[in-house]
Amino acid sequence: MRILLLAGVFVLAFATPAAAHPFGPPSTARLAVDGSTVSLSWLAAEDDWVALGQSLGAFDGSAAVTGEEQLRRSPAVRDYLLARVTVSQGGRACPGELAPLADLTGQGARYTFHCPASVAELDVRVSALTDLNSAYRTVVTADAATPARGLLTAAEDTLRVRFSGSGGLPGSVVGLAAGLAVLVAVVVAVGLVVLVRRRRA
Fold first, then answer.
1. Contact, 124 vs 159, CB < 8 A?
2. pLDDT tens for the 201 residues of the chain, in order
3. Euclidean distance between CA atoms 51 and 80, whole angstroms
4. Domain annotation covers residue 51
5. Helices marked H in 14-102
6. Strand-pair partners of 140
7. CA gap 38, 56 in Å, rounded
8. Is 13 domain-assigned?
């Protein structure tokens, strides 16, 4: 079993882009908003990361450095990810930042986008991997949003997402609103108690 596993790793490490599995589970993009800030995590399968690295020349064949470390160090990989995953608001691109790549199969590529205004609606575009094979797709999910789930493909790589409730409000604003609501409820309750006592008196 150990020999087979090592053999599998060897084959994976030297796979070509054509050896990826576009018909396997799709990659995923998870969205969250806080005011004008958008967080996005894009996760792909391990063999798809390998195919991507191969296509961008990220691997130098060195056995001293892991494939993940070579992906992490590659400027071409970072440039590709920033170009292929974007967010826009009202037709204007939201500047994005890509966190250092770490634990690619667990955390994926983690982005932070800064939009011009608090987010009520945005367009998210994911075209990563579709240049390797048009069969690739990405499932986009977001809380307090319409749609809460969407599928992006090579033909349709952009999804418009509308956020409702507190989705696009800063956490401080949401907390303040909740605090005011509680305060109003307390004041009303105290007022009712005083009124009842006066009537009884």
1. yes
2. 222 222 333 334 444 444 556 878 999 999 999 999 999 999 999 999 999 999 999 998 888 889 999 999 999 999 999 999 999 999 999 999 999 999 999 999 999 999 999 999 999 999 999 999 999 999 999 999 999 999 999 999 999 999 985 555 454 434 443 444 444 354 445 455 545 566 666
3. 13
4. yes
5. 46-55, 67-73, 75-84
6. 29, 150
7. 27
8. no
Asked if residue 100 lies in contact with residue 72, where contact means CB atoms within 8 angstroms, the answer is yes
Q: Which two tokens stand for residue 23?
A: 């018909």
Phi, psi values for residue 113, rounded to 5°: -115, 140
Is 4 inside any structural domain?
Answer: no
What would the two tokens of residue 143 be? Answer: 């809380």
Q: How many independent structural domains does the chain possess?
A: 1
CA-only gyration radius of the chain, Å: 24
Residue 41 corresponds to which amino acid?
A: S
Both tokens assigned to 41: 């995590």
Q: Which residues contact 108 (CB under 8 A, 6 or more apart)?
A: 28, 41, 42, 43, 44
Q: What is d(CA 152, CA 28) in angstroms, rounded to the nearest whole number?
A: 10
Domain of residue 34: give its range: 27-163
